[in-house]
Amino acid sequence: MRTFEDLVAEGRTAPVEGWDFSWFAGRATEQRPSWGYAGLVGARMADARRVLDLQTGGGEVLATAAAAAAGAASPVDKLVATEGWPPNAALARERLAPLGGVVVEAAEDDPLPFEAGSFDLVVSRHPVVTDYAEVSRVLAAGGTYLSQQVGANSVRELYEFMMGPQPAGSVREPAGHRAAATAAGLEVVDLRDEWLRMEFFDVAAVIVFLRKVIWTVPGFTVSAYADRLRELHEKIFSDGPFVAHSRRFLIEAHKPA
Question: What is the value of pTM for the model shown?
Fold first, then answer.
């Protein structure tokens, strides 16, 4: 049994750049959505020449999909990603450069710095915000938008443990995204929604998760939540893994030809 202080020290110093979650091996688990997002992106790239990944993080998912598509003789000849956080953008450039990818630094809520009709396929995994009007603008006629999103009230058990009862969210409801996409002139052809079991095996894993997925507990710091973290540590020690549930939904939309 490691001490609370040791685990907190480890959680404070673990790297949180990018969307590589390999650090959590043996520390936390999360079910994967049934649809296999990276595989879907790779399949869609088989029919796209110009591909844009919005809010790419460290480029992990796009690199996986692009490498698979390249092995399948994909027609992609323009591979672009946007990222708003400089440390992530640097990781993405390093990861995507061997695949011919270009990373453009752009804030999540800024207009996209591309001409209208620039891309045949726009993808995004867990974007902070989704501007469907901008997505529609940069898509070419007949193009596709494919995204895996974080659904409303995801990981509610954890953020309410840390912050107390919170009002139910609605911004990230799938129905709202369908309406926004439709209003932007896109035709939604697929919309799936799943709840997935998560387990945290020690408080260090919780700390790293909250440092990495910053919207779960806005403004989280170890110092500000020291009492709640200690209580969580004791709960895990006495009851076993802390269980929460993430929510993911998949949306695919086409721009009419």
Answer: 0.90
